[in-house]
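Private note to self, pasted from the team thread so I don't lose it. C-alpha cells:
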C-alpha cells in the first residue's frame, strides 16, 4: 500500500515536472517565435518608413532642380531674342548688334527670378552675348569669374565660389530646324534647396543629406551646423557606396562604424544625381531581448506558482475556470477595442446584411449624411446611393466581384438628404460563414470631393495660359489632335490659323510689360467676336496665337474669317488711358491638305505666317 502510494506520488511528481517543463518550453518557444518575426518586421518597417520620407524629400528637391531647368529652357525659348541669335547664325547680324539686341531683354527677364544669382548667354561658338546679374546676386561674396564654357555640356550642375556652392542650369537655344545655335546658363543660389531639406527633415540633427553624382564620384552635403551646401569627394573608404547606388530607391546599412547607419538613396529621373539620407540606425533588438527576458521570467514564476498550486490542491478544474475567465476577459477587451475603433473611425463604416439592409452604422456615417441614428437601422443602403451615377449594371458588377473575391474597392456616388451628390472611395468586405457564403457586408468609405476638385483644378491650370487664360500650347495640341480624329470620321476638314501681332514690340518697349500684358489679354475677346462658339482661340507664347476651326465647308469660309480677324486686330485697343493700334500677320494651314499631325500643321501654319509678314503684314497667307 505504501509502495503504491509512493509510486503514485512519484508519477504525480513526474507529471507535474513534465507539465512545468512543457509549459516553460512552450512559453520560451512562443516568445522566440514572436520576437524574431517582430524584430524583422520592425526593422523592415523602419527601412520602409525611412525610404518613404527620403522619397518625399528627394521629390521636393528634384522638383526644385527641375524648376531651375525649366526657367533655363524658358530663357532659351524666348521668341524675339532667339530670333536675333538665329539672325546672327545666318550672318544677318554682327556680334555687336546681337549683344545690343539681346542684353536688355534678357536682363529684364532675369529680374523676375527671385533666386537667380547670375546668368550668361553664349553663341554656339562660345562668344558671350549677354552676361547679367540676377536679384540674388548679393549672395556672391566675390566678383563672379567663372569658366562658363565648362558648364555648357550640362543640364543641371553646380558652381563653387569662395567655398559657397551654387546650382547651375543650362539649356540649349535651337533654331527652327532644332539645331543648337547657343546656350543659356543660369546660376541659382542654394537657399531654396536648403529650405526644402531643412523643412522636410524629420530624422533629427544627426541626419546627413547628400546630393550624390555617382558618375563623377562626388557629393554635395547639407551641413546642418553652417546651414550651407558643401562639395565633397568620396574618400577611399566610401568609394564602394557608389557601386551600391543604382537607378531605383535603395536602402544600405553601413556597419563599418561603431554606430550602424542607414543610407536611403533616391535617384533622380533622367539624371546621374540622387539624394542620400543618412542617419543612425535605431536598434530594437536589444529592447526586444529585454522584453523576452522579462516575459521568460514571468512565465517561469507563473509556472512555478501553478505547479505549486496543482501539487498542493490538485484543482485542475479551478485552474481551467481561471484560464477561461482570462480568455473571456481578453475577448471582452478585444471587443471593446473593436467597438472603439468602429465608433471613433474618421471613415464612415456601415454593416449590412447580404441584401444591403443596414444593421449598424458609426458616427462618421451619421455626421456625413446628417441623419438621426434611429432612422438608419433597417434602411437599405441603396437609399443613399445616387442612382443616376450608380446604375443597376454597375451594382451587379460589384456584387459579382464580391462573390468571387474577398473585397472590392472603387468609387461610389452617394446623395445626401438635401440632394447634394458626392463621390466616395469605398471598400466592401464580406463576412462569410463556414460554407463561404456572405452573411454580412462591411462598407468603409469617405468623401473624396475635395480631392477630385483639386485634381480637376490642377488639370485645368496645366492646360491654361496663366496670362490670357486661353488654352496654352499643350492644350492647343490636344484640341488639334482631337479635331483631326473627328475630321477623319466626318470626312470634312479643319483649319489652323497661326498669327502673331505686328508692332507689338514697340508697344512693349515704349509702355512697359504691364501695358503689353494687358494688350495680350485683350486679344482673345477681340478675336472671339469674329468666330463661332465652337471655334478655339489659344496662345502659344509671347505674341503668338492660334485659331482652330472645324467642319469647314469651303475655303472661302476660312478666307472670310481670317480677313475679319485681321481687320478686328487693326482696330484701336483701349488700355487704361492709352489708345494703342497694332496689327496681325496670319498663316493658314488645312488638314488634311497641308499636314497629317498637329505639330506638322502648327509648323506649316507658322511658316505661312512668316510669308504673310514678309508680304507686308496685316494680311493672311495660305500654306503651299
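Design output:
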Amino acid at each position: 500500500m505504501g509502495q503504491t502510494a509512493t509510486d503514485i506520488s512519484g508519477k504525480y511528481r513526474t507529471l507535474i515536472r513534465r507539465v512545468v517543463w512543457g509549459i516553460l518550453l512552450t512559453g520560451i518557444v512562443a516568445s522566440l517565435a514572436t520576437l524574431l518575426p517582430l524584430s524583422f518586421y520592425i526593422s523592415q518597417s523602419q527601412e520602409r518608413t525611412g525610404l518613404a520620407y527620403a522619397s518625399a524629400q528627394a521629390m521636393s528637391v528634384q522638383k526644385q532642380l527641375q524648376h531651375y531647368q525649366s526657367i533655363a529652357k524658358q530663357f532659351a525659348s524666348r521668341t524675339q531674342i532667339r530670333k536675333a541669335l538665329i539672325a546672327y547664325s545666318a550672318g544677318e547680324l554682327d556680334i555687336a548688334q546681337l549683344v545690343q539686341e539681346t542684353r536688355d531683354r534678357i536682363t529684364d527677364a532675369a529680374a523676375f527670378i527671385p533666386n537667380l544669382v547670375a546668368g550668361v548667354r553664349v553663341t554656339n561658338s562660345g562668344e558671350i552675348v549677354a552676361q547679367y546679374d540676377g536679384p540674388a546676386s548679393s549672395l556672391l561674396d566675390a566678383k563672379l569669374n567663372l569658366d562658363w564654357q565648362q558648364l555648357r555640356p550640362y543640364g543641371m550642375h553646380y558652381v563653387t565660389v569662395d567655398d559657397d556652392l551654387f546650382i547651375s542650369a543650362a539649356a540649349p537655344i535651337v533654331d527652327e530646324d532644332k539645331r543648337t545655335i547657343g546656350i543659356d546658363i543660369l546660376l541659382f543660389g542654394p537657399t531654396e534647396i536648403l529650405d526644402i531639406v531643412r523643412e522636410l527633415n524629420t530624422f533629427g540633427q544627426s541626419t546627413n543629406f547628400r546630393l550624390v553624382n555617382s558618375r563623377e564620384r562626388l557629393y554635395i552635403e547639407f551641413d546642418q551646423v553652417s546651414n550651407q551646401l558643401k562639395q565633397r569627394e568620396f574618400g577611399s573608404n566610401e568609394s564602394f557606396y557608389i557601386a551600391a547606388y543604382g537607378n531605383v530607391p535603395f536602402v544600405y546599412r553601413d556597419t563599418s562604424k561603431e554606430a550602424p547607419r542607414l543610407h536611403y538613396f533616391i535617384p533622380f529621373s533622367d539624371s546621374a544625381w540622387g539624394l542620400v539620407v543618412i542617419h543612425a540606425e535605431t536598434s530594437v533588438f536589444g529592447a526586444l531581448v529585454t522584453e523576452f527576458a522579462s516575459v521568460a521570467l514571468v512565465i517561469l514564476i507563473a509556472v512555478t506558482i501553478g505547479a505549486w498550486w496543482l501539487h498542493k490542491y490538485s484543482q485542475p478544474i479551478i485552474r481551467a475556470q481561471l484560464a477561461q475567465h482570462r480568455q473571456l476577459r481578453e475577448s471582452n477587451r478585444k471587443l471593446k477595442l473593436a467597438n472603439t475603433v468602429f465608433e471613433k473611425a474618421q471613415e464612415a463604416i456601415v454593416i449590412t446584411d447580404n441584401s444591403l439592409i443596414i444593421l449598424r452604422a458609426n458616427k462618421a456615417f451619421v455626421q456625413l449624411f446628417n441623419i438621426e441614428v434611429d432612422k438608419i437601422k433597417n434602411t437599405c443602403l441603396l437609399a443613399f446611393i445616387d442612382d443616376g451615377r450608380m446604375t443597376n449594371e454597375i451594382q451587379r458588377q460589384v456584387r459579382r466581384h464580391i462573390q468571387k473575391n474577398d473585397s472590392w474597392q472603387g468609387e461610389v456616388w452617394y446623395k445626401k438628404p438635401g440632394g447634394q451628390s458626392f463621390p466616395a472611395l469605398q471598400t466592401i468586405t464580406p463576412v462569410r460563414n463556414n460554407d463561404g457564403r456572405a452573411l454580412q457586408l462591411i462598407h468603409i468609405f469617405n468623401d473624396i470631393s475635395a480631392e477630385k476638385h483639386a485634381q480637376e483644378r490642377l488639370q485645368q491650370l496645366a492646360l491654361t495660359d496663366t496670362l490670357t487664360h486661353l488654352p496654352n500650347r499643350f492644350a492647343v495640341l490636344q484640341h488639334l489632335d482631337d479635331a483631326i480624329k473627328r475630321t477623319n470620321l466626318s470626312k470634312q476638314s479643319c483649319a489652323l490659323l497661326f498669327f502673331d501681332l505686328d508692332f507689338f514690340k514697340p508697344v512693349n518697349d515704349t509702355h512697359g510689360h504691364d501695358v503689353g500684358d494687358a494688350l495680350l489679354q485683350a486679344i482673345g475677346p477681340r478675336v472671339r467676336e469674329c468666330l463661332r462658339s465652337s471655334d478655339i482661340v489659344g496662345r502659344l507664347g509671347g505674341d503668338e496665337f492660334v485659331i482652330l476651326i472645324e467642319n469647314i465647308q469651303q475655303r472661302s469660309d476660312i478666307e472670310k474669317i481670317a480677313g475679319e480677324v485681321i481687320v478686328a486686330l487693326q482696330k484701336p485697343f483701349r488700355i487704361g488711358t492709352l489708345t494703342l493700334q497694332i496689327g496681325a500677320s496670319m498663316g493658314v494651314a488645312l488638314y488634311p491638305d497641308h499636314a497629317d499631325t498637329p505639330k506638322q500643321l502648327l509648323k506649316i501654319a507658322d511658316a505661312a505666317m512668316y510669308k504673310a509678314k514678309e508680304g507686308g503684314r496685316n494680311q493672311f497667307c495660305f500654306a503651299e
